[in-house]
Model the fold of this input.
Amino acid sequence: MRLKTAQNIHLPNQSNKMHTLEKMGIIAGRGNIPRLLRLYLIHKKIPHFFLGLKSIADPKICDTMLSIGQLGKAVQTLKKEKISKLIFIGGLDRPALDEIKPDFGGWLFLLRNAFKIKGDNSLLTALARTFENKGLKVVGVHEIMPDLLVKKKTYTKKKPSAKDKKTIEYGVDLAKKLGEMDVGQSVVVQGNLCLGLEGIEGTEGLIKRCGALKRGTKTKPILVKMCKPTQDKRLDMPTIGLETIQQAIKAGYGGIVVEAGAVLFPDNEKAIQKANEAGLFIQGI
Done:
């Protein structure tokens, strides 16, 4: 089922730079960004084809659905559609190996890369290399919709206090060290305490877990989310959105800090409104 209109849907303001009319392929995961990208491509009349991951992507915005192990079928489908550029977009929970039911192309990928993959970044890089070896150029969604990127500024009425700024420095240092190990992108800090590091549960799971660990009432926890130092920004850019802000408010957080130019922020008008109502700050650094 195709989306036929972008009416009544807020799209980020875009530059007047003309985009190529080459047909774009999109491998879509979960979340709202695939929907925003689909509406934007329709609005700009850019030819496109959405390949959604079964049980993950929204089938209403996808042209076809394949399971995560059907790598060979995915390449075949995209080549048949005469795709020249490819975007990976949306969340993906990495499955256990016994949950993947690969086709022949999927088996070849696993045989060639199973022992090289150490984390999410290396997995996605290997996948991108596989598609590029088949003649598909992989690009980042931020190259198409640059206004989705977080800017270096405070988005909310509330700003970090002097005490908050010291906590943020500590959190940024921790997040960078975590990213160097290709483990996660986010940490939660409160004063000079680290309440938690992001693992397989993702950012929302981290927010909930650390909300139950907060100490006292003089300060509130702060979520710090950074891009991994070795992360390929074409493939898996960190994201915050309305759900992130709602989870942080519910868990009693004082603020959210993200890396400017390296984190996506869809639905930011609604998210900022919610943060202002709750007295939570959002800062791009």
